[in-house]
């Protein structure tokens, strides 16, 4: 997919992020509580801006060549000592089914190994999210196994797969 790029996640993306976190498909496979707390999008953006400043996380708006919002590329956890980064991606409803998720993860992975200086990048994917698992495979991530009951969301325990990639992986 040509022209897709990562831009720092900041206040100017608030309306797009608000729409994204109101999408039932996004809520289904993320750790965002349902319904999201009031003003969640603003707080989320502020959290990623703060993380950018202190080196603990990074967030990107993903846009096409015309600057249209396609989704988010997220680095919710950076461990600078271990040089490990957790990555995540969310695609806006109007951009789904066009390879955007694969492109987001490709760009995030490139960022992780270059700018983020990671020695290991990993994904935590809900075991029921087959589409996201296919994206991970297409981007060269290996499934390390499933973590049982790793997350509590709205009174229900979630199992998630752990996927990883090293800079030396093909």
Please sum up the structure shown.
This protein is of the alpha+beta class and 170 residues long. It has one domain (5-165): Aminopeptidase. The protein has 5 helices and 7 strands; from the N terminus they run βαααβββαβαββ.
> What is the percent of helical residues?
25-40%
What's the order of the H and E elements? EHHHEEEHEHEE
Describe the strand arrangement of the main beta sheet, using strand numbers: 1-2-3-4-5-7-6
Principal-axes shape call: globular
Helical/strand content category: alpha+beta
Biggest sheet descriptor: 7 strands, mixed
Radius of gyration: 15 Å
Low-confidence stretches: none
Q: Would you give the CATH topology?
A: Aminopeptidase
- CATH level-two architecture: 3-Layer(aba) Sandwich
Strand count: 7
The number of helices is 5
| Mean pLDDT across all amino acids | 94
Our measurement of the CA-to-CA distance between the termini, rounded to an integer number of angstroms, reads 20 Å
CATH class: Alpha Beta
State the CATH superfamily name.
Answer: Gcn5-related N-acetyltransferase (GNAT)
In total, the number of domains comes to: 1
Proportion of residues in extended strands: 25-35%
Q: Would you spell out the secondary-structure blueprint of this structure?
A:
Blueprint: E1 5-8, H1 14-21, H2 24-29, H3 40-54, E2 58-63, E3 69-79, E4 84-91, H4 100-113, E5 120-126, H5 130-138, E6 142-153, E7 156-165
Parallel strand pairs: 4-5
Antiparallel strand pairs: 1-2, 2-3, 3-4, 5-7, 6-7
Helix pairs in contact: 1-3
